[in-house]
């Protein structure tokens, strides 16, 4: 049996509309399953090698599916129909596939890195954003809760850098080597190349490799940071050594001197002072 898993809340509540598009791409018999309220572990345990999962959703849906099924052996293939707002996971892998096909993603759901925050462990697919990007997700969540739609994350980030963000002092340790930064605007641990709806934060990162990339926007003032920020959308920010520091490693620990919002594949965790990511 083919199972089409969809999230009715994805893409700002347009999940049901996108589902109709997916139906036109599925040949043969299939069953539709809404992931809202679904127990993924119970669902996966009932599958056989003859089944097929078509996962319809964005980075948030993917992250939840990966976390719930991380300790299970999925017996069948898993295909992806990207239906989120950012779709950074799909953006990272799509060059390996034809645009008309739904890519097989099963190999990307195993051996995922783990981030530890306040004693809790979470697996992630794309990256951890700590600083301006975390605050951006926090503010966007508040705006959504207030009923606002069509939020422009780029303009929101600019406003945060210019007016709202009090830049923290940071200590960042990669595989045992600690570097101190007087200002850390962004301190990310990347498993893929993209996050934040198209920001190419770690252009050389290989999600199937055995290391993470730590990317830091550092030390500059508000105007200097804002001027250098747009280069991140093409991955060219890493060439600005005065503004951006990049290190690779198997374990990354970031400590801020004040609580700041953090995002995991676009999902917000508020009031964080430290995280450790391992691969």
Question: Mind explaining what this structure looks like?
Answer:
The structure is a single chain. The chain has 279 residues and is of the alpha+beta class. The chain has 2 domains: 2-109, Probable inorganic polyphosphate/atp-NAD kinase, domain 1 (Rossmann fold), CATH 3.40.50; 114-278, Sandwich (Tumour Suppressor Smad4), CATH 2.60.200. Helix content is 24%, strand content 32%. It contains 8 helices and 14 strands. The chain has helices at 10-13, 15-23, 40-45, 59-68, 88-93, 132-145, 153-164, 222-228, and strands at 2-6, 30-34, 52-57, 77-82, 114-117, 120-123, 127-130, 170-174, 177-181, 184-190, 212-218, 244-249, 251-264, 267-278. Strands 5, 6, 7, 8, 9, 10, 11, 12, 13 and 14 form a 10-stranded antiparallel beta sheet that branches. It has a 4-stranded parallel beta sheet with strand order 2-1-3-4, with helices on both faces. α6 (132-145) crosses α7 (153-164). The longest helix is centred in the middle third of the chain and has 14 residues, at 132-145. The radius of gyration is 19 Å and the shape is globular.
């Amino acid at each position: 049996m083919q199972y089409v898993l969809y999230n009715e809340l994805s893409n700002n509540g347009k999940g049901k509309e996108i589902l109709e598009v997916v139906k036109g791409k599925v040949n043969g018999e299939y069953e539709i399953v809404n992931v809202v309220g679904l127990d993924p572990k119970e669902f996966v345990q009932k599958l056989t090698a003859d089944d097929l999962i078509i996962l319809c959703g964005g980075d948030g849906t993917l992250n939840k599916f990966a976390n719930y099924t991380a300790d299970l052996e999925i017996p069948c293939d898993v295909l992806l129909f990207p239906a989120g707002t950012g779709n950074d996971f799909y953006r990272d892998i799509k060059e390996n596939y034809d645009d008309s096909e739904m890519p097989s993603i099963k190999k990307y759901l195993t051996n995922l890195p783990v981030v530890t925050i306040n004693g809790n462990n979470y697996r992630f697919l794309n990256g951890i954003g700590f600083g301006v990007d975390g605050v951006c997700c926090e503010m966007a969540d508040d705006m959504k809760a207030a009923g606002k739609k069509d939020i422009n994350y780029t303009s929101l980030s600019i406003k945060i850098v210019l007016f709202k963000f009090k830049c923290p002092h940071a200590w960042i340790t990669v595989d045992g080597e600690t570097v101190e930064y007087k200002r850390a605007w962004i301190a990310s641990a990347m498993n893929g190349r993209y996050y934040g709806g198209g920001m190419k934060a770690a252009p050389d990162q290989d999600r199937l490799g055995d290391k993470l990339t730590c990317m830091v926007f550092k030390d500059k003032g508000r105007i200097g940071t804002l001027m250098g920020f747009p280069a991140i959308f093409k991955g060219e920010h890493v060439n600005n050594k005065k503004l951006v520091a990049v290190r690779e490693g198997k374990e990354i620990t970031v400590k801020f001197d004040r609580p700041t919002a953090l995002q995991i594949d676009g999902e917000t965790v508020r009031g964080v002072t430290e995280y450790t990511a391992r691969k």
